[in-house]
Amino acid sequence: MAETLQSFFAGRWRDASGPEYATEYPHDGSVVATLHAATAADVDEAVQAAERARRAPAWARLKPHERAGLLWRIAQGIRERAEDLAQLQRLDNGKPIRECRALVASAAGTFQFFAAAAETWEETITPSRGDYLTMSVHEPLGVVGAITPWNSPIASEAQKLAPALAAGCAVVLKPAEITPRMAIELARICQRAGVPDGIVSVLPGKGSVVGDALVRHPLVKRIAFTGGTAVGLGIQRLAAEKLMPTSLELGGKSPTVVLPDAELDHAVAGVLYGIFSSSGESCIAGSRAFVHESVYDAFRARLLDGVARLRVGDPAREDTQMGPLVNRAHRETVERYVQLGRDEGGRVLAGGARPTGGFYDAGSYYLPTVIEGLPNRARMCQEEIFGPVLALLPWRDEDDLVAQCNDNVYGLAAGLWTRDFRAAWRIGRALETGTVWINTYKQFSISTPFSGVKMSGYGQEKGRLGILEYTSQKSFYVGLNEQPLPWALS
Ligand code: NAD
Q1: Are 108 and 245 members of one domain?
Q2: Is the distance from the beta carbon of residue 250 to the nearest atom of ligand 1 less than 6 Å?
Q3: 251 within ligand 1 shell (Cβ under 6 A)
Q4: Mean pLDDT across the chain, nearest whole number?
């Protein structure tokens, strides 16, 4: 039975004003929920209410330990509903249940981490160069628009909400149209934790309507965006019109490098996990594997053996490793890329098709796919596919390898598999990416900054200093003169 969802904005649960639409479970295409999309007028109401709420003493004058307590209660609220939230997230975007549980746990950890950061934040007294005391404090930027994609909802949303609330901002959150559920549940948890009405609003709907209205709204002072590079560029253009800071967490085409001395079992496991977990619908998916020619054949054989044994199936099953893609339209995009790879001369070594029979036919499933024989310059190796498609590329010379890894518009992440620490350090420093994993992949810690470079975006998420993204700095000079300032009297 499909549930009816409401939006939460300006402190009230109700239907948004736009047309009704349905969300589907990617496993079988069944309708999971119906809800109304928001409109620009709803955005205006939410933002006006957020502006009032963030200036009210109940929010603006919270002491650091009180604000921390609130964030802590949100973390606890998530933990109390952990299994329920994980199951809802599975229905929302079809990720395997074990991944959903990890995302929910990470969201709770994010609020807990920023609770600690808020409580222990210190401002600085700066060295004085005159008869005055100088200090610098951080002020909340105001109302923040947070815009998130569909691939890891609760984790993405927590990574924006938690630092924004810790900094004292109010947030109007626009989740992806097709995965609104986690943001709505987070709003419920925030409300129960005691977040004042208006401080958190959630408005699902179309990016071109709700997202656009948020970006343009004069009272929105910052946009925290995660999504595709094309949309991010559009947001940046609009933000320039009102000198609004943004953080843009965008796409990727991350290389994973296997050196001649790599422990091959570790490298194979890491490459498999890096590209095929989350069905490759991950900004940091390791979608280009550069394998040294001396171990290429051995690596390829073990990789293909691993691919053949991956369990692609029902996301509700505990042992499923790869679920369906988020919907049929996205599967068609992935299929077009695989066809492009074939047209460009690539050889499909595994996958390259939909699995068929039984429940596979109803869902938006696609097989884990490995393609070799393409140069790094091929479009299939250059563009983000956001699906379970790995390009396998041999390499010989280290300088050429680094040049090929960097020969891409994106710069989000990279992986290195080697026992040679000096080589790992040398190559890792030379790669143009925001994150480098050495002998591991796709591991995350909320205490470690995350950001892209090049067309993967900018702006820090995670890490204690992530709070700074939601603040402006204000300097104070406090006169200590015993006499009036001399200029007027001289
Ligand atoms: P998308 O850019 O299509 O949508 C992201 C969000 O932006 C959605 O909420 C969407 O409704 C909204 N949006 C769309 N048009 C808009 C507009 N004109 N104005 C304002 N908002 C608008 O991306 P997607 O397909 O949902 O997600 C996949 C993309 O997200 C991939 O490129 C992936 O790499 C990227 N991503 C990046 C990271 C990261 O941390 N760098 C993490 C996850 C996903």
Answers
A1: yes
A2: yes
A3: yes
A4: 97
Q: What is the pLDDT of residue 7?
A: 98
Are both 45 and 14 inside the same structural domain?
yes
Number of structural domains found in the chain = 2
Strand 435-438 to 413-417 pairing: parallel
In the numeric block, the tokens 């570790």 are attached to 266
Domain of 298 in residue numbering reads as 255-438
Q: Which helix (H) or strand (E) element contains residue 112?
A: helix 97-120
Paired tokens of 292: 């040294």
> At which residue do the structure tokens 């796409």 appear?
251
Q: Choose the residue to mutate in 152, 231, 455, 461 for probing ligand 1, maximizing ligand atoms within 8 Å of C-beta.
A: 231
| Closest C-alpha to ligand 1, atom 23 | 227
CATH of the domain at 377: 3.40.309.10
234 CB under 6 A from ligand 1? yes
Answer yes or no: do 131 and 278 share one domain: no
Q: Is 185 a catalytic residue?
A: no
* DSSP single-letter state for residue 169: -
Q: Is the CB of 327 under 6 A from ligand 1?
A: no
Residue whose token pair is 């604000």: 67
Does 1 score more than 80 pLDDT? no
Nearest residue (by CA) to ligand 1, atom 31, is 228
pLDDT tens-digit series, residues 400-458 = 999 999 999 999 999 999 999 999 999 999 999 999 999 999 999 999 999 999 999 99
Told to judge if 283 belongs to the known catalytic residues of this protein, a careful annotator would answer yes
Is 78 found in the same domain as 120? yes
pTM as predicted? 0.98
Examine the domain organization and report whether 201 and 101 are in the same domain.
yes
Closest atom of ligand 1 to 234 CA is 18
CB 469 less than 6 A from any atom of ligand 1: no
Q: Which atom of ligand 1 is nearest to the CA of 229?
A: 32
Considering the domain architecture, whether residues 152 and 271 belong to the same structural domain is answered as no
Compute the 3-state secondary structure of the chain and give helix, strand, coil in percent, each to the nearest 5: 40, 20, 35
